Amino acid sequence: xxxxxxxxxxxxxxxxxxxxxxxxxxxxxxxxxxxxxxxxxxxxxxxxxxxxxxxxxxxxxxx
Length: 63
Known about the structure:
By secondary structure, the protein is mostly helical. The protein contains two helices and no strands. The chain is elongated. The protein starts with a helix and ends with a helix. The relative contact order is 0.23. The model has no long low-confidence stretch (mean pLDDT 95).
């Protein structure tokens, strides 16, 4: 289950990178509705990564 925690951390880093990419590189290139959809996808990615970390921590007994 430590693997879940490690993968969750990696996915969190990817979510942060995607968020920064969307906020800086795509800001002027996408229409507002498309950018909003991208942000929603990044938020879902982030929430699922947190869930993976939480599941790993629960399985290990940390939480």
